[in-house]
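Please think about what follows:
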Amino acid sequence: MKLRPPVVDYRRLRPSNLSSPEFRHLWLLLYWIFYLLSFIFIERLTPAAYHHPVHMWLDDVIPFCEWFLIPYISWHVSLAWISLYTLAYDIEEFRYFMYNLILTTGLTILIYIVWPNEQQLRPDLSALGRSNLLTWATSIIYTMDTNTNVCPSLHCIGGFAVAFAAVSCPRFNTWGWKLFFAFFALMVCASTVFMKQHSIVDFFAAIPLALLGYFAFYFPRRKAIAAKAKAEREMLQTTASGKAAA
């Protein structure tokens, strides 16, 4: 499939025109720096004694399954993909995607500051009775990613944010793609508990924040999003008909 040219020619980007109407949306990317630094500081500066354990009985019923590493990692890929896609083809949806992340993940960071928390659910991988590439990769993730500040789950919040942004783009505003991205978001959420990275409490706590982002930035625009998608489909059909006639 031939790629369309981006709606913004980023080859013209210079430090002198970064604040111009054409490129000023890029300033929103600075939030990633703020978010990462905030998360690292909280992780490093909060004493272990202040962490509140998060657990409920359902956590003891859910088994560890290393196959869920695949959707767990796909979350990171999806954040990069939707950022690049909207930066290239839909600046308006890029802005709303970033607004949603700023609101929902910003509130989550505040929760971590006020209520530091942790989970103690990770299994002893050496005692599983099996060893494969996925269990090895899981051990690497356990080493790199701490088990602190997990509630609400940023994975769940981010998974829904990607889904909301994707289906708001005309290219993916169809029932087929909506079902795909809904399934994707749910698989990301499931991966957090089957990977024993999160308690299911973290998922339940993430849902209100994900809904807050949806009702703040997508629900009020639902008719405009549908109209934009319809207009693009009609334009593509007209273009295809013109080429066929020629």
The longest strand covers residues 52-53. DSSP finds nine helices and two strands in the chain. The mean pLDDT is 93.
